[in-house]
Amino acid sequence: MTNLDAVERNSGGQALKDEVLQKLEALAEESYKKFSSGLIPTISTDRILGVRIPDLRKMATLMLRDHPLELAEYFQILSEASQSNGCYQEEKLLWGILLSKVRLDDIDRMASYDNFVPAIDNWAVCDIACGSFPWVQKNPDLWLEFFQRYLQCQNEFEIRFGVVMILGNFIKDDTIDWVLDQLSKVNHPAYYVTMALGWTLAECYVRFPEKTEMLLANGSLPTPVQNKTIQKIRESNCVSRENKEHMKGYKR
Question: What is the pTM of this model?
C-alpha cells in the first residue's frame, strides 16, 4: 500500500484529519519544503511540510471518492484549527482543492468558502483554490455577487481570492464591463492584491484590449495597480511588440 492510498473508510472528520496529516508527513520532502519556503515568505517555515501539488491532487481525488460523507466535518475541523494557526500549508492547499471539486449545492459551497477564505494566509493557497469551474457557469449571476463581496474586504488574501476567481471565470463578452468596473474600485495597498489586479487586468487587455486600454487611459486605477498592469501586459507573449511599446505611455 502506497502513501497515496485512501485512508480507512468510515472515519469521522477528526480521524480523517489525523490520517490525512499522517500521509502528508510521509510524503513530505525536506528539499521541497526549503524550495516552497522561499516562495511563500508570509508564513512560518515550520507550517510547511514540503508535499508536492500533484501528490495533493491525488490525495484529494481519493478523499472525494472514499470519504464524501466525512468531508463537511473535515472542513469544519480545518476551519477551527486554522483560527489557532493549527493548520499546515499542505492541509490548506488540500482543503482548497477539495472545495473546488466536492459536490455541493451553491449555498453550501458558498458557506464552505466563507469558512475557508479567512484561513488563506498566502498566495499559493489562494491561487491553488481558484480556477475556472463549471459550477460557477451554472449560476453565474449568483457567483458574481459572491466574489464581488470579497473585493470589498480589507484582508489582503480575501481580496486576492475574489480577484483570482473573477480572472478564472468572468473575463468574457457579457461580463467584461462589470469586471473592469469592479476591479477599478479595489484600492488596497497590499502587495498580493496589487499583483492579482495587475495579472487580471493584463489578461483583460489580452482578451479585450480596447476596453482595458480605456481604463488605463482614464486614470482611475491606483498608481501601483496601473504600473503593475502595464508590466504584466509587456511581459505577455500574447501582446504584440508594438502594443507593448504603446503601453509605456500609460506608466505613471
Answer: 0.93
